[in-house]
Structure formats: C-alpha cells, structure tokens
Amino acid sequence: MRLTQHSNYAMRLLMYCALRPDHLVRLADIAEAYDISCHHLNKIAQRLAHIGIIHAIRGRNGGIRLAKDPSEINVGQVLRATEENLIIVECFAETTNTCPLISECKFRKLLQRALKAFLDVLDDCTLADMVDEPECLKPLLGLTDNITSFMSEQEPPQCVH
Predict the structure, then answer these.
(1) Between the CA of residue 20 and those of 69, 103, 114, 116, 121, what are the distances in Å?
(2) Which residues pair with 25 in a beta bridge?
(3) CATH fold of the domain at 5-153
(4) Which of 2, 30, 46, 71 has its CB surrounded by the most CB atoms within 10 Å?
(5) Counting Cβ atoms within 10 Å, is residue 118 exposed (0-12), middle (13-18) or buried (19+)?
(6) In 51-156, where does DSSP find H-type helix?
(7) What digits encode the pLDDT tens for the residues 18-70?
C-alpha cells in the first residue's frame, strides 16, 4: 500500500498544529519546518478545513488551527479524507475492472483483508497519539517555545521511537 504525499503532508500539517495548540499557525511556517511547498500545503489546508478538521482564518494575520482537540481527530478518518481512493489493485474498482477472476480471486480477498487491517490500525490512533512526546518533536521542527528553559534545566528528554 502506498499513500500519496497529500496524506503524508496532511498528517504533518496536523501534527504541527497539534504542537502549537495556543497559536494560529501560518502555512509558511509549516512549509519551512518540513521543507515542502506552501502551495501544496494550501490545497491540503483547504481540504482539511472543508471537512472540519482545521479552522482557516484568511488575511494578513490569518493562519490555521485545529478545529477539534487532537484526541478527537482520528488518523484513519484523516487518511480516508485525504486519499482520492484506496484502490490498491484494479479489481477494487468494480466499474473499471477487466480481470475475469474477480468473483473467485483469493488474491483480491487477501488484499481486502490487508487493507482492512491497515485501516483498523489507523482507526485506533488519534492525532494526540501522534504528538504524545512534544518535547521530542518540537526541537526537530524548530519549535522551542516552552522547551528552551526545560532543556537548559535538565537532561535532554529521552524519546521513545
């Protein structure tokens, strides 16, 4: 299974916003942190705003922020909303399938089970789970607010991978 960059960038955008809960985040800052196109992020932000995952405020002082608590944003739902389709083989698209084995194909059934298992794992995870170690993630993105003083007083945090 291969996901599009669109889904990957959507999750990165959401993780960044989750790490900055008290801020209105500029897409330019997210683009810089991840070294990705601001134009591409804008398309993703529009989609996420349309489905109610983020709020987008236009204008000079505008930006984006999460529309829900990170614990209420399901990774599986985000993936389903950002992927055009989850057709991993031709026979998943019944209207365009040309394979004559469709009704009896064990490979198709195996892939259907694999896709379900994949989505079940993502459905068990929230955005909050993805950012549950902010002290490890923030420095990697250049977000040092509230971490600089913590890190100067103690040993650097040990991050679980």
Answers:
(1) 12, 50, 35, 32, 26
(2) 64
(3) Arc Repressor Mutant, subunit A (1.10.10)
(4) 30
(5) middle
(6) 75-82, 106-123, 127-130, 134-140, 148-153
(7) 999 989 999 999 999 999 999 999 999 999 999 999 999 988 888 999 999 99
Amino acid at 79: L
- At residue 122's C-alpha, the angle toward residues 138 and 21, to 5°, is 30
Closest CA to 29 of 117, 116, 142, 139: 142
The token pair at 83 is 């992927």
Q: What is each CA distance from 75 to 22, 53, 129, 130, in whole angstroms?
A: 22, 11, 9, 9
The predicted structure's pLDDT at residue 93 = 78
**DSSP-derived secondary structure letter, 126:** B
Tell me the C-alpha distance between 36 and 45, whole Å: 13
Check whether 153 has a pLDDT greater than 50: no
End-to-end CA distance of the chain: 22
Please state the domain extents for the chain. 5-153
The pTM of the full predicted model, rounded to 2 decimals, is 0.82
